[in-house]
Amino acid sequence: MKRIGMLTSGGDCQALNTAMRGVAKTLFNAKEQVEIYGFLNGYQGLIYGKFRLLTGADFAGILTKGGTFLGSSRTPFKTIREPGEDGIDKVAAMKQTYYKLQLDCLVILGGNGTHKTANLLREEGLNIVTLPKTIDNDLWGTDMTFGFQSAVNVATDCIDCIHTTAASHGRVFIVEVMGHKAGWLTLNAGMAGGADIILIPEIPYDIDKVAKKIKQRHETGSRFTILAVAEGAISKEDAALSKKEYKKKLANRKYPSVSYELAAQLQEKCGYDVRVTVPGHTQRGGSPCPYDRVFASRLGSEAAELILKGEYGFMVGYKNREIVKVPLEDVAGKLKMVDPNASIVKEAKLLGISFGD
Ligand code: F6P
Asked: Between 213 and which of 38, 114, 334, 354 could a Cys-Cys bridge form, CB atoms 3.0 to 4.6 Å apart?
């Protein structure tokens, strides 16, 4: 008999339910008897002992449902060792819940912050297996995270819709894409949506080059320009600042985000009508796309296999088209960023896309 705990932590994304179903179906199909305890709202459920014993019915009909039926929350890693407002020692409380329930393993679905805490729990002696979720695709140790392809679809749909209205009115449109500090989502949605300019954090932009590209297009007969701009996009000037200086500058920025600042600058430099569209959290919502359904199911199933074999301390990831197990200590605390010299960037440039560099 195996007793498994399961939780989803951090920002949600599509295919969390799919992945949990993949784990559960494989475990329930195994010869060994298995009990699965679902912790509610991420690590909070583990800290405060909020859980429920899950049955096959909990995992039925959720393959295609976005969100997470367990709920999620952010429990910042940087304060994990500090007592909460209620004075609770979070790490001790999580361990206590684990041992009280006599768990054999915790399955944790999450992104970067979640993996730091997962690795800490592993160091504290708990058996952990994790699954890589995030629309940002910035998790080290895996070429792909689930949620990413679904978010690319949503952001691409947004750019497609903007295309037609931008063409009608001959406008410059900025579509601001999520992705935190990484440009994966913007790069892929931008290319898929035929953006003329793609600005990502990994390639700081020069505002004059961005303006020049727009003017060039309009002077050579194009009536409109589409920019896919990552929420973390940064100018060359700002990239040269120290972290502290940049933080201070951001705190005093009079615009709600980089896109609005860019819009004001470009309107002034080019004189064209500039509009901003921010799809925001729609990029994390809705049903997982077919790719993510298959991908998350496969990862979930492989995670269950590890558990059944008693192999703990790994994230189940994807490298060079193979499902792999990556030691948690290698994953925690590292980001996977777009390489400015990657072939996809070169190819985008060959297609005529400007990165403003
Ligand atoms: O990490 C996923 C993500 O959607 C990022 O792309 C974005 O920066 C962030 O979460 C938004 O966080 P919140 O849901 O807390 O506003």
From this structure: 354
